[in-house]
Structures are given as C-alpha cells and as structure tokens.
Amino acid sequence: MRAVLSLAISVSFCQLWAQAVVGSGAVSGRVFEKGSEGLPDAKVIVEKEDAGISRQVETNMDGVFQLPDLVPGDRYHLRITRTGFHDWISQQFEVSTGQNLDFQVTLERANSAAAGESSPPQPLVNAAIAPISRALSPADVETLPLEGRRWTQLALLGPAVSERYGSATPVMLGVFGAGMNILDGMLADTSYSRQLTPAVRIAPDTLQGAQVLSTGAPVEFGGALTGYVNTVTRGADKDWHGDFYAYYANAGLDALNRYSLGKQLFHNRYQTGLNAGGALTDKWFLFANVDYERGKGAALNRITNPLIVYPNVSGMNLSNCKATTAQCGVAARFINNQINAVVPVSEKVVSGYAKLDYRPNEFNLVNLSGYATSAALPQAGGLSIVSTNGGVLGGGVSRQYSYRGRLSWTISGATWSNDLRFGAAQTDLRNDPSKSGLSTGAAAIVLDGTTVGESFPNRFVLGERRADLIDNFRLNLGVHTILAGFTATRSRDWLESLHNSQGSYTYTSLTDFATDLSGSSGKTYAAYMQNLGLWARDLQSWNMGVYGQDTWRISPRFTLTAGLRWAKDVLPQPTKVNSSYYDTGTLHAPGMQAEPRIGLSYRLGDRWVARAGFGLYYQSRTAESTDAFFLGNGAYQYNLLVYPSQTGSPKFPAAISSTTTVIPTGSRNLLYSASKLGDPYSEQGSLSLERYLGAGVTMTASYVESRALRLWTAEDVNVGGNYTLTYIIKDATGQKTSSYVTTMWTSRNNTTYAHVYKIGNGGSAAYRAGVLQATKRFSRGFSARGAYTWSHAIDDVGGPQLYNAFAIGSNNTLYAADRGSSATDQRHRATIDINWQPTLLKNVVIARNILNGWEFSSITTLASAMRATPTVLVNGAQYSGAASFASSINGIGGWSRVPFWPVSSLPIEQQFTINARISRALKFTERVTGELMFETFNLTNSQFDTGVNTLAYYANGGVLTPVSDLGAGNAAKGGSYGSNSRSCQLAVRFTF
After folding, report:
1. What is each CA distance from 549 to 295, 486, 582, 594, 600, in whole angstroms?
2. Angle of the 325-336 helix axis to the 510-517 helix axis, nearest 10
3. Which of 7, 343, 365, 623 could serve as 410's disulfide partner, Cβ 3.0–4.6 Å?
4. Is pLDDT larger for residue 101 or for residue 943?
C-alpha cells in the first residue's frame, strides 16, 4: 500500500495554542505502521536546502514528533526514515508565520511492494492555514500593492478586522488600541502607549512573513485584550543575493481630495533601499537592509463649523457675532486668516536592519539581529491632510529614534527543544512646540469645538528602555506535547512633558471670543485649563508571566489543547499623597492573574476539520496610565480647570505663571484608582468548520464572540446635589417640537477641587462576528484570497478619554445610558486579493518575450459605513442656579453627546476601493534581473467620507437649537498621504 498523508491539522482555537512560537512556524505529527498506534524511533528530518536549514528529531514511543521554531518560508521538505521501512518524502510545502503543520504519515514495510510517495502539496499547505486569522507570505508583501510602502496596510486583510476610519490602523474585535504588534517574537510597540506611535517602521523588504491573529494570542504571550499582528524578519539563504529598489510618487497622476478645495496637497514621495544576504561560511549567514524615504506635501487648515463660518466656508459668520462691530471685525480677521490656510509638511525616515544566523548543526540555531530607525514626521498626521476643525497651523515635527536588538538560541534533542530569547529596545520620541505666528501667542484656543489658536503648544519628550527575556521548553511525552515557559519584561520610561503648559481657552460663542480677543477689560471665556508643576518623571515597571500547556493527541482525528498563563504587573508607587484623598498615594494593581486557554480540533474526514476554543485575555498596564495616576494626585503637577469668575483666573490670552503662589480655589483636578482596580480582560470563543474543496481551494466558516469586561471608566466623585431641568427642543424654524428632562448636578462635594476622578472598572464591550474565508492557492499562475466578516461591536465607553485610557460617560456612573454601537462598528466588510502571472504562447519565442513576464495583483475592499455620535455644544449656565461644571448639559462636564438620541446614530459612508499593481519582469543575465512596477490606489477614485459634522444642537438658556449640516461629510482621509483619493507610484527593482 502506498504511503498515506492524512491532513489532520492538530491546531486548536484558530492556531492560537499551536506549538509554533510567535515569530516562527512549526511542523508536527505522528508516524504510524498500518494497524499500529504509533511507530517509535523514526527519524524525522525537515529541510530547506536553499537556506541551509536542516532539523532532525525522532518519534517517541507513540510515534509523535515536534519540530518547532522553524523560519517561515517555502521550499521545505519533510523526510521520514526508519530501519525496515520505506523512506517517506513529502513534496515542497510552505511554513507560515505562527502556524503549525501537522502530518499523519503511515510507513510501509521494506518488504512491501510499494515505496514511499510524496504527498500532493496543495491540500497540505491549505490545511495549515488557521481560521479567523490571515497568514501573509513573503510573496504577499512583495506583490500586493502597498501605498507608501506601508506593509501594515496588509493587516486590514485579516478577518474580524475593521479600520479606524481614515488611519489605515487595524481594529480587532471592535476595540481600538487593545491589540499588540509583535516583531520576531517580541513587542514592537512602546510600553508607554499603544496609541502614541505605530509599530516599528520596518521596510517591507526586511519581512519574511506575518500573521494577522484577530482572536486571542498564544499562551506564550499576554497583555492584549484582542489580537496580534505577528511579524518575522528575513534571514539569508546559502547563495548571495541582493536587491536595489526605488519607488516614486508625485502629484501628476493623483486625484484631488474631495475636500481639498481644488488644491493638490500631496507633492512627491520617494523611497529607495538596498538589501543583500548570503552565506559567510557553511554555518554563518548574514542578511542586511538599508532604506531611505522622503516625502513632501501640504496640510489644509479647513474650518467647517457652521457656528463659526458661513455655509459656503467663505469666511467667519458675522451673523453669529453679537459683540460690537469693531470687536467682530477683529475676530473675523483673526479667523479668516486661518480658513483654508495651506501649511507645508514633510517627512524623512532612515532605517537599517541586519540579521546574523549561526547554524552549527541540525540541533542548534543562534540568531543575532538589530534594527535602527530615525524619523522626522509631521505632528499633524500624514504628508497631506485636510483638517476639518483647524489644528494644523505651525506644522509641528515629531522626531522618533528607535533601536532594537535580539539574541536567540534554539536547541533541540530527539524529543525536546528549548527556545531562549533576549531582546533590548530603546525608543526616543520628541515633539517640540510649534510656532504658528498667531497674535495670541502660545495659548491654545478652542472655539465652538474648533481649534483656532496654537495647534501644538506642548513639548513632549519620551525615552524608553525595555529588556525582554523569554524561554520556551517543549517535550514530547507519548501522545502529549508539553510546553512550559516564562516571560519577563522590564521597562523604564523617562518623561519630560507638561501637557497644556501654556494654557488653553475654551469659548462657546463667537460673541464671547470676539469680546476677549479685542482686549476688553472683562473675561468672557467659558473655561481655562493649564498644567503647572514637575516636567520630568522616571517610571520603572516589570511584567512577568509563566505558563504551561498540554497538546493531547487523543486520536489521529482528535486533538485537545489546554493551557494556563499567570501574569503579574509590578508597578512603581507614588512618593507623595494628597491628604484629602488617601488613594492617590497608592497605585493599585491586581495580583497574579490567571488566563486559561482551551481548544480542540477534530478531523471529520480527509477534507474536513472542525475547531472550537475559548480563552481569557488580560490587558497589561502601560506607562501612560501609570503616569496618569502619578500626576493625578496633584502633588507633582497641577491640572487646573478655571472659570473666569474665580479669583486669580487669567485674562486672555495670558497663562498662569509657573512661579505663582496663587492658584484659584477649586480649580485643581485630581485622579486616583479605586482600591480594587483590576485590569480589563476579554472572554473569547470561536467555532469554525474548514473544508478543502479541491483544486487548491479551501473554504472556512467561523463564528467569533468576545466580551470585554472591567474596562476602565472615570467616575467624578466630586459632584453632588441635583435639580430637574427641562430643555426646550426647537426645530430649524425656531418652533418648539419637544422637550427633554434631565437631572442637573449643582454642587461639589469638596469645593477645594474641581473634577476628582476615581478610576474603576465600570465599562464593557461585546463583539459578535460571522466569518467566511476562501483561499485559492497559487497554481497555473493564479492565486486569490477572500474574507467576508459580518460583525456587531457595542460598548458603553465610547465617550472622550482621559490620558487615552479612562472613558468619561455622559452621566457619570450610569454607563448603561451610553451603551450602543461602537465607533469602530462595521457590520459588513469584505476583502479580496488576487495575484495573476499569465503564461501565454510559451512555445513562441517572440510572444514569450513580449506577452509573458507580466504580473497583476490587486486588493479590493468593500465595507459598510461606520457611524458617529451627535453632540451638543452648551453655552454657559442653562438656568439661574449654579451647576457643578458650567457649559455642560447636566452639570457633570462629561461626554457632550445628544442624550435623547442613540449612540453612533450618524452614518458616515460605505467604502469601495480597488488597489492594483502591474509589473513586468526583465532579464539582463542569468543572475541579474529587473522589474518595472506601477501601482494605483483607489483605482476608480471612489472617495468616501471618513468624518461628518457631529454638532447637532446648540444649548443656550435651556433651549436646544438645531445646528445646520448635521451629518454632512467633512473628511476623506486615508492611506499614507492623508487622503483616500486615487494615487499612484512607479517603481523599479534590480535583483543580483
């Protein structure tokens, strides 16, 4: 009988607990003799000859083998030999990032008539792909169109993934900023904040592969509430090869943004680089890359607020200014100079990467790699941006420097292996204040929710040093594969910042702003905010985790995986305490947190696999939240909220002096953690059914459900008293249509302070999704992948956030009142990517040279609209009595959403885009080849809104008056150039 390869894929819960380490792949399986339970002492060898990789193990008493920590790539072979049996050799297969291939092989006796036979390669590779995730091969990174050469855009191809509108930032399970970016098995983001900087800006040419893992994480890693983008860098092959590449884009072939007023904001961008690698000796291998990119563009400072400008945005709306003619004229000149102002912006990024592999034998692999980057980026965003509500004047620059080093040692025996990794990272970030040249100096000004003052008045300096130590040990014991390991991370963050150090003035009417701007003797601003105190801080923390896992092959068809992780954060403690609130002296952190993981897979036949799984995932602390608790006690920095009626309040546009001893009473804000503050966590479960249809086509249907619990919320414990207030609601003609009754909070429990926020775990979110995935593996020059996700994301933490971490509600502790569809909820999303390399008339020389050698690829995205939440702008006190906090619809000063409408009730716009790439291969010699490329993004120029006017009502004297243009589009952001209009780039590549 011929040798049989059964495609039993023993991966559990979407490969989340497979034996493949984050940043690598794995091969495992079981060897049988017909009629036996397992064949021991068989030699199993996995080889990748072009890279000089050869790994060897022996099957245990039950015929089980495991080959972890494999470099992702194609052209692998598996060879199995045993005395007295025919050898078995597979055909070529691919090992993908984070994936585990499981072989079930029957060997024939040497005296039988049949010899070992290779398996069909296509079912093998497709069977390895995990549901509810997306593996990105080197071919995907090389051939799919990438705007601005940002490979992270490919993460949007993953299932159960949406996009933070206009940012090309993936959102997993409907929760923004709750995932992690992993590079070679280690955190690629800063430990300070996951929303501060993107993942490491590594050039696409340095990547070997990636995995978009939407639902959970391997038991090795914790700290993520949702999912991971797991990437692994390239290494060298045996033969020396190199590439020189250059990409160029300019405005000539680009369409105008629908809101750029006919101005071409993008100017040009080019990127060039060189990579080379090969064998130094038969045991030493080196790969290196250098990359340089430079771009220029402009930002348009639009102001579209209907309370400030005329409907045609031709200038300040003088009809809304009730001050004197002279005062309104001063305000008009000040604002008109900002409307549609064009500000030049530029970016420059230089990066370098090197990896050195030492492979002394098939049992050892030592790897040393390093990465460095220097970047100067616009603080406003991308190369070109159309601002909706001001904020780009001055054009501040963000300077970023990152350095990373990694050393790993993988050693294996016949039935065991150990992977030890050490990493060190340094990040230096500096945002310097801008100088817009406005007559109001460094003061920030917010008028009716629009920025009309200094845009970036604050200096922010961050220096982070992080060290990671990770060890994983695996052992095959019968039908059990045991994994045990630990992680330890030490982070140190040096901070030099004083947010809002120059002060910010808030106005809720043009009249009040014009009065103050003209230099009147009074003070008509709604509120003034400023920070005073300590600039420099030094925060050190530890994160530690230990874990264990058992993969039990109950039968050739059935595999069960169970794992448990314990994690612990060790946080610094404040050295000062506020005497009025003793909790400000302690930064509360839970003890060891247990994260159980369980999953199973069952092979229903040679072409069917069913999987299910469940897991618990905790969100780790960031230094940004730790810093917030330190500063929240008011002892290191004073966070002030001042009203013009208070003694000592400043006069516009002056700031309160840092040396003053007179702080207005009742102006200091405080923040502290609840005594039992826990970390947010999610409960994730999934079911999936995978079917291999033949001809290289695989279909997977999945269901995902996630509940995020104990999300951080801010409760203001300083508000008290109440008064029932009835608002009159009018229509556009001024006629009363209805009314709204609310409780108005009228006093403060402690008049010495303003807001006193207690951070608790009052929030929650839920996500449900159905996913369909189809894959056509590469054959006859064609491959395709498609993913469709229906999902619904809801939460009760959609309001503004303190320190990017703590959600503020509209009615303090009544979180259920804010429950509704999330801002990232996208009901329908489909992506299709294809690659086609046609071969025509291959036997005709002229046709072969002209018609062949072309390659076409594309990414098509179809997505339903996301939604925004309507808001209310409150002008001063709404009735004759006092309010806890003025300019608030209920006196609390929380989320200013329209309270009688549902959350996320404004549709934005659906998306339909096609990104395409065409290339032509060139052959100069047998060794030297070239490639010409042309890429276009949003081929049909189907621009879509990414923002709308959300201001629904203006509240004045207890009357709610509708504001025009509610729901009108005002932004079409996206891509790397700040616009989702059509753009193009040309490229050339030489390979030698």
Report:
1. 48, 12, 42, 13, 13
2. 90
3. 365
4. 943
The C-alpha angle 977, 983, 984, rounded to 5 degrees, equals 115
Pairing of strands 241-250, 266-279: antiparallel
**Phi and psi dihedrals of 334, rounded to 5?**
-65, -45
- Residue 41 is which amino acid? D
Provide the 10 A C-beta neighbour count for residue 289.
25
d(CA 388, CA 379): 16
DSSP state of 118: P
Q: What's the pLDDT tens digit per position in 306-347?
A: 999 998 888 999 999 999 999 999 999 999 999 999 999 999
Give strand ranges (E) for 619-680. 637-642, 668-673
Sequence-distant (≥ 6) Cβ neighbours of residue 513 within 8 angstroms = 331, 445, 447, 452, 507, 524, 525
Whole-number Å distance between alpha carbons of 508 and 502? 20
Going by C-alpha positions, the residue among 354, 427, 539 that lies closest to residue 187 is 427
Cα angle, residue 733 at apex, residues 732 and 737 outer, rounded to 5°: 75
Residue found under tokens 């009735």: 879
Rounded to an integer, what distance in angstroms lies between the CA atom of residue 27 and that of residue 86? 21
50, two tokens: 């072009």
Number of residues written out for the chain: 992
**In this structure, are residues 24 and 72 in contact, taking their beta carbons and an 8 Å threshold?**
yes
3-state helix, strand and coil shares in percent for the chain, rounded to the nearest 5: 10, 50, 40
Q: What is the pLDDT of residue 57?
A: 86
Residue linked to tokens 């034996």: 19
Burial-class residue 31 by CB neighbours within 10 Å (0-12, 13-18, 19+): buried
C-alpha torsion angle, residues 709, 714, 718, 723 (rounded to 10): -80
Nearest Cα neighbor of 415 from 895, 694, 38 is: 38
CA distances from 316 to 309, 516, 875 (A): 4, 17, 19
Q: What is the pLDDT of residues 809-854, one digit of tens each?
A: 999 989 999 999 999 999 999 999 999 998 876 666 666 667 788 9
Mark out the alpha helices in 358-482 (DSSP H runs): none
**H/E element, 516:** helix 510-517
What is the rounded distance in angstroms from the CA atom of residue 942 to the CA atom of residue 93?
39
The closest of 714, 987, 789, 992 to 145, measured between CA atoms, is: 987
Query: For residue 947, with 0-12 CB atoms within 10 Å meaning exposed, 13-18 middle and 19 or more buried, which class applies?
Result: buried
Q: Three-state DSSP class for 43?
A: strand
| The predicted structure's pLDDT at residue 504 | 95
- How many contiguous H segments (helices) and E segments (strands) does the chain have? 6, 59
Q: Strand, coil or helix: what is 498?
A: coil
Task: Name the token pair of 157.
Answer: 């191809």
3-class SS letters over 480-491:
EEEEEEEEEEEE
Q: Helix, strand or coil for residue 326?
A: helix
**Burial (Cβ within 10 Å: 0-12, 13-18, ≥19) of residue 1:** exposed
Q: Which residues pair with 906 in a beta bridge?
A: 868
Close Cβ partners of 83 (under 8 Å, ≥ 6 residues apart): none
CA–CA dist 982, 992 (Å, integer): 33
Nearest to 775 by CA among 718, 730, 723, 835: 835
The CA-CA-CA angle for residues 183, 226, 192, to 5°, reads 60
Instruction: Give every CB contact of residue 627 below 8 A, 6+ residues apart in sequence.
Output: 493, 495, 537, 539, 803
Residues 6+ apart with CB under 8 A from 571: 541, 587, 589, 621, 626
Structure tokens belonging to residue 961: 């008056």
Closest residue by Cα to residue 601 from 13, 7, 197 = 13
